[in-house]
Structure to design on (265 residues):
């Protein structure tokens, strides 16, 4: 199994300090991109927003299937973060074969019409979750940090119906849910496995679909990145989805005498 770990250091000084700040990492500081056709590059952007040097930290990055409240699928890698000066940062990079990650879209999903599109759309990436946990040495005792990132993409043909990505949940209780940041001209819905509207309270272990459509006047090449908040037993997980308006073939319908009539937009 191939794995590479890269560390990027910026503006760091290891001078002694009588006080320590906590190193910071949010879900916005966690990202990944596809390198070539078979490698995924993960980036963790740790930073120090305090007024003193942060303590050294070490941690682990785990992969999960796309969804929320899912168990770990496997370990992507372990890392160490040295003390960071105030207003500075330390980046950790991992490159992992995509075959070492769970299948994006929950094993079901999402881009059923991709082959019919004129250009590759959306940009290829891995749909899934990561869980970052770290331990920081501090004079006052250990500090444990944890960040989850849930991300997927879906391509949409404007004015041509909805397109879906499969969703898994691992909550043992009921789940409440709500969408945020849906763009004008776009419509999103949460649906059951049979594509019925999802109930206001999802049952334990719910699986289904996040579905997206775009009006015909949505420009090709535009995107809408929205969020789905799922709350289980008082804990909220946010799933981020970026939908892309793709250039698609103009659909045709058969006339009554068996010829094909083109629908022009």
């Amino acid at each position: 199994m191939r794995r590479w770990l890269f560390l990027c250091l910026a503006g760091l000084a290891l001078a002694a300090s009588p006080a320590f700040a906590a190193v910071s990492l949010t879900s916005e500081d966690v990202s990944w991109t596809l390198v070539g056709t078979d490698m995924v590059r993960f980036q963790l952007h740790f930073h120090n927003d305090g007024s003193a040097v942060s303590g050294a930290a070490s941690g682990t990055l785990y992969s999960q299937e796309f969804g929320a409240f899912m168990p770990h699928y496997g370990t992507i890698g372990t890392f160490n973060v040295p003390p960071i000066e105030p207003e500075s940062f330390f980046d950790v990079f991992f490159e992992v074969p995509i075959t070492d990650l769970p299948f994006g879209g929950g094993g079901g999903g999402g881009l059923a019409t991709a082959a019919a599109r004129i250009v590759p759309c959306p940009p290829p990436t891995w749909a899934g979750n990561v869980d970052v946990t770290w331990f920081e040495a501090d004079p006052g005792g250990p500090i444990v940090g944890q960040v989850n990132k849930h991300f997927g993409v879906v391509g949409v043909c404007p004015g041509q119906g909805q397109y879906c990505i499969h969703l898994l949940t691992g909550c043992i209780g009921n789940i409440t849910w709500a969408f945020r940041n849906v763009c004008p001209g776009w419509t999103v819905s949460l649906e059951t496995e049979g594509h019925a509207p999802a109930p206001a309270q999802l049952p334990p272990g719910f699986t289904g679909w996040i579905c997206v459509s775009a009006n015909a006047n949505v420009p090709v090449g535009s995107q809408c990145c929205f969020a789905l908040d799922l709350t289980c037993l008082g804990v909220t997980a946010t799933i981020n989805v970026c939908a892309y308006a793709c250039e698609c073939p103009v659909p045709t319908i058969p006339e009554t005498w068996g010829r094909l009539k083109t629908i022009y937009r």
User: Anything to note?
Assistant: Residues 122 and 155 are 5 Å apart (CA to CA). The two ends are 49 Å apart (CA to CA).
